[in-house]
Write a structure and sequence with these properties.
The complex is a heterodimer of chains A (332) and B (304).
Chain A (H helix, E strand, L loop, with lengths): L1 H30 L4 H13 L4 H14 L6 H15 L13 H36 L4 H13 L4 H15 L14 H40 L2 H8 L4 H39 L4 H10 L3 H29 L7
Helix pairs in contact in A: 1-12, 5-6, 5-8, 5-10, 6-8, 7-8, 7-10, 8-10, 9-10, 10-11, 10-12, 11-12
Chain B lengths: L1 H6 L2 H18 L35 E2 L2 E2 L21 H37 L1 H16 L2 H12 L5 H9 L4 H15 L2 H8 L4 H37 L10 H10 L8 H34 L1
Helix pairs in contact in B: 2-3, 2-11, 3-4, 3-6, 3-7, 3-9, 3-10, 3-11, 4-7, 7-9, 8-9, 9-10, 9-11, 10-11
The chains are: A mainly alpha (332), B mainly alpha (304).
């Protein structure tokens, strides 16, 4: 019974979070004086000379409908929620008119999700393993060196590390192309080969930063756990180091790290956007950059809405499975 | 002070020294009279570095592949890091970038920390409906990806944003996390004896919060302040790389972006692209060590 109550409460928070986030991004553009339709017409006029007033009015009207800018603010809001949030329909993309923005996002999303998911999970595993070793024997010199390296990598912003890797591996050593090129039309094997080659550097930069963070946090967690009384008791019982390390320290510290993994997804998404832009990797980040360049608000709003929904959902899932993993936690 | 230095770990010392170094670069050296990094007349482009004194050693002597580049009207000039392809002095551009990046970081951290502490205390102490509402909003801001929303806002202001507007956009996401932390601190503190004593002796809520609670949150707020500075500088430079930072504002991120735009990497102009990258890396490592060192120092002090 308690489970259902917890589930209901958690689902309500999830829906409210998304609603607040989306409401927020709906009202932001409307608070600013710049009007995308007027700007677009202005751009067109500056390119092709002035237009007939009647034609201009007709164009304004059709553009307003496509941008979801017709009707009162309230009607616009409802339409936005209905079309955007429930059907992921954000109107046509101006970048490649008239393809719907949602379709283009759906094409690029797997790249971002694949890149960030794979790297996050690998980084989480490697980082927690190293962090556990470093925290469990924290007075060893090797532990200090490992932590030192992690501390020097973790604080570097994503795009700076990406740039450094690009300079070293793509420019100086020339092992990889400066910009990612993926061939879609030359068969599956070529596609996978070019995809992998294009993914190495972006993945490496996300991986390095992620691993750095998990080492630091896991080291401090397992360091504190190693000093707990029950670990001391296990030592007195004469259990092997491996047994203590796994059953006593690892299993107790890993729980916190699972929640932390869910909480970190937002940051990973931000980082993956920046990394993609540096390397020209064809994910949502590059899409957002292109949309900014061409003032394509349908596309920008679409990307942001989808990322809000995706990240809140990941957090929800992590919250829901947490009690299954940690027997000390009850649904409450 | 002496005792502090004796007890401080290597990390804390290193972080303090690096942070102080950058503060001096950004807020002292910045005010030293110098050549305008944006000359009205573009004179010599792509000059290599030349530093007085060191040039006699054969490095940084203004030559490129053995050819002296400082000649004619620039024969007696010294550009410590050379000039860009637009004829700007890279050293003073860098100092200006550090100054602006730090200013933005500090403003954002100040706003974020003050608002965060206020909201956190309010929702922790008042409780009830206000608490639930504030926490819902806070949680939303913790969960929604900050970068896309910042991208949306700055792309609407495209190029016309001022330093203050930029700082406000960044501050929008800087308050949520501290307010969550402060709230949970307030919740545990509410049950402590000395708070009950304060209440029973007739102190009002405001009075109690100001005299009994705030001092407790100060050390934590300081650590959060440094953290927020770091992430604000990172976000700003991220936006700059997207071309969304105000065009006339020189920050570390903007400097990197311009160097990239003018193909400094492909042209091999390392004296242009590397200084802002290395400065950012060193500044961030220094700040991060300062934060973790300070936290360790606090927990050590508490343990004694």
């Amino acid at each position: 019974m308690k489970f259902w109550k917890y589930l209901g409460l958690r689902l309500t928070t999830w829906a409210l979070t998304i609603l607040i986030g989306v409401t927020f991004i709906f009202f932001i553009p409307r608070m600013f004086p710049s009007d995308p339709v007027e700007r677009m017409i202005g751009n067109m006029e500056s390119l092709s000379g002035s237009m007939d007033p009647a034609a201009k009015e007709a164009m304004r009207k059709s553009l307003r409908i496509q941008f979801g800018l017709d009707g009162s603010l309230w009607e616009q809001y409802i339409t936005f929620l209905w079309r955007g949030l429930l059907h992921f329909d954000f109107g046509p993309a101006l970048m490649s008119y008239p393809t719907p923005a949602g379709e283009i996002i759906a094409r690029n999303l797997p790249f971002t999700v694949g890149l960030s998911m794979c790297t996050t999970i690998v980084a989480w595993c490697i980082g927690n393993f190293i962090g556990l070793l470093a925290g469990f024997r924290k007075n060893k010199r090797s532990s200090r060196i490992l932590e030192g390296i992690a501390i020097c990598i973790y604080p570097i912003p994503y795009f700076i590390l990406a740039l450094v890797l690009q300079i070293i591996f793509a420019y100086v050593l020339g092992w990889f192309p400066l910009q990612a090129t993926i061939q879609y039309n030359n068969g599956t094997a070529t596609f996978i080969a070019t995809l992998l080659k294009a993914s190495v550097l972006p993945a490496l930069s996300i991986l390095l930063l992620g691993t750095g963070w998990w080492i630091i946090s896991m080291k401090s967690l397992s360091g504190t756990t190693s000093e707990e009384d029950f670990v001391l008791y296990a030592r007195y019982r004469g259990l092997s180091e491996g047994k203590i390390g796994y059953s006593y320290v690892f299993r107790n510290s890993i729980l916190t790290q699972i929640t932390a993994l869910a909480m970190s997804l937002g940051g990973v998404f931000n980082g993956s956007i920046m990394t993609e832009i540096i390397f020209g990797y064809p994910g949502v980040g590059t899409l957002i950059q292109g949309a900014i360049m061409q003032s394509d608000y349908n596309m920008i709003l679409g990307c942001i809405t989808i990322s809000i929904v995706a990240i809140s959902t990941c957090t929800l899932i992590a919250d829901l499975i947490y009690p299954f993993i940690d027997p000390r936690i009850r649904y409450s | 002070m002496k005792r502090f230095w004796k007890n401080a770990s290597f990390r804390l010392k290193f972080g303090l020294i690096v942070t102080l170094f950058f503060l001096i670069l950004g807020f002292v050296i910045y005010f030293v009279p110098h050549v305008d990094p944006f000359p009205n007349v573009i004179k010599e482009k792509n000059l290599p570095p030349r530093i007085p004194g060191i040039e006699k050693l054969g490095i940084f002597d203004g030559t490129e592949n053995g050819v002296m580049k400082y000649k004619g009207s620039t024969a007696n000039e010294y550009h410590y890091l050379g000039t860009t392809s637009q004829g700007q002095d890279i050293f003073w551009l860098l100092i200006e970038g550090i100054h602006n990046s730090l200013t933005i970081g500090l403003i954002v951290a100040l706003i974020g920390t003050v608002v965060g502490v206020f909201v956190g205390l309010l929702s922790g102490f008042v409780g009830g409906g206000i608490d639930r509402f504030l926490m819902l909003v806070t949680d939303t801001f913790v969960v929604i990806p900050s970068l896309p929303v910042m991208i949306l806002m700055t792309s609407l202001m495209k190029g016309r944003a001022t330093v203050i507007m930029m700082a406000l956009v960044l501050a929008l996401f800087a308050w949520a996390w501290p307010s969550r932390q402060i709230r949970s601190m307030a919740l545990t503190m509410k049950e402590r004896d000395f708070i009950h004593t304060a209440w029973f002796s007739g102190e009002g809520v405001l009075q109690t919060v100001a005299t009994e609670i705030l001092p407790f949150t100060l050390t934590w707020s300081l650590s959060n302040f440094m953290n927020a500075t770091l992430s604000a500088i990172a976000s700003e430079s991220g936006l700059a790389v997207l071309g969304l930072s105000p065009a006339n504002l020189i920050t570390l991120g903007n400097m990197i972006q311009w160097a990239r735009n003018y193909n400094a990497i492909i042209m091999g102009r390392w004296n242009w692209i590397l200084p802002p990258i290395l400065s950012t890396i060193v500044l961030f490592i220094g700040l991060f060590m300062l934060i973790t060192g300070y936290n360790d120092y606090l927990s050590m002090k508490r343990g004694r």
